[in-house]
Amino acid sequence: MLMPTQREQLMLKVLNAIKQVFDPEIPVNIWDLGLIYDIQITEEAEVVVLMTLTAPNCPEAEGIPVEVQDRIRMIDEVKDCKVMLTFEPAWDKDRLTEEAKFTLGLF
Predict the structure, then answer these.
(1) Domain 43-93, CATH 1.20.120.450 — does that match?
(2) I want to staple 38 with a disulfide (CB 3.0 to 4.6 A). Which of 10, 26, 50, 90 is the partner?
(3) What distance in Å separates the CA atoms of residue 47 and residue 79, rounded to the nearest whole number?
(4) What are the tens digits of pLDDT across the range 67-82?
(5) Model's pTM, two decimal places?
(6) Nearest Cα to 82, choosing from 36, 47, 54, 34?
């Protein structure tokens, strides 16, 4: 069972893992793109990620969620990871972080 501080530390590791995943067509990680809608960590150190893609017909629709799951599962403390894909609400550019907007020249 995870203590609150352990859960916080694990969340930081999960976020770091997610920030290593990039959409191959865009030079920005999926966290800064705003593709991650929710992350839950259970008391048993199971991670559930709710995410989207920039478009439902994204050519990487199968690859990106698998990469997210694989990277999170590499974290020693994680017992399991499930990534769920949704398109509600649809992704839009308002979800980009300031850093992503800067990288993409959208200022």
Answers:
(1) no
(2) 50
(3) 8
(4) 999 999 999 999 999 9
(5) 0.92
(6) 47
Q: How crowded is the C-beta side of 91, counted as CA atoms within 13 Å?
A: 23
Question: DSSP state, 91?
Answer: P
Tokens standing for residue 83: 């990534």
Q: Which helix (H) or strand (E) holds 49?
A: strand 46-51
CA 46, CA 50: separation in Å to the nearest integer? Answer: 13
Nearest to 34 by CA among 86, 77, 89, 93: 93
Residue type, 70: D
Q: What is the Cα–Cα distance from 97 to 28, expressed in whole angstroms?
A: 10
